[in-house]
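INFO batch 0412 | record 1 of 1 | parsing
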Amino acid sequence: MNQRSNFIIDTYLMTKRSTIAIFRNPFIFIPNIMISLFFLLVYQAGLSGISNIPAFEGASYLAFILPVSIVSGAIGGSGGAGQSLVRDLENGYFSRLLLTPTSRVAIVLGPIIAGMIQLFIQTVLILLVGLWMGLDIAAGFGGAVVVILLAAGFGLAFAGYSVGFALRTKDAQASQAGTFVFFPLVFLSTTFVPYELIEADWLKFVSKINPTTYVFDGMRSVLINGWEAQPLIYAAIVIIIICSITITFASLSAKRAVNRD
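INFO prediction complete | emitting tokens
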């Protein structure tokens, strides 16, 4: 019981420290938020006429494109988690932590959870802008909560990768750049049109196996159609699988870093 209590306290303290470090440097997250909002405004202004196509069945294009802005922001913003850890590696704080009784798992989880908190706030801001632009959420307030949770979960997965990559490279720029390799996932999906309107067979295939597609579907289901179980279940399964992989990667990277130090 005492060990569990110590782990919770350690995780809280490491999360608090990483969160303060992220928000102390606004240039870590403000550009990412601005880019996400820019995408939202441009896509809505330039492509909203697509929603007149019968395949959209009268759905709002703003509700359709909003998840793209949120998910791209989640991928881009996850690099902040790794950058805060790199600073600890560079200034020797990480090595000093290893000399204390602090839980090794908490040392890794702290930056990951901090990155998720950043993306949680970021998603709320994007949703508020969407509401200001006239977004009507079919599932109401509960639907907005689901969108935020899906974004936070997906962001948690990429924050885990960012932390693992940071521990491997020990370089802030490499840690930030490492997350951008996932940006093609955003566009090799049902990004701008429904699956039925994708013409290229290869893109249909890639979209079908792309995990981002299922996160898009989960968010769009509550924004456009209301409560539908299947898209939400698929989105949750995808997020759980990716989180398991990336957090395991972060844990193994931490063990490697500990052995080196």
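INFO post-check: Residues 2-257 form one domain.
INFO record closed
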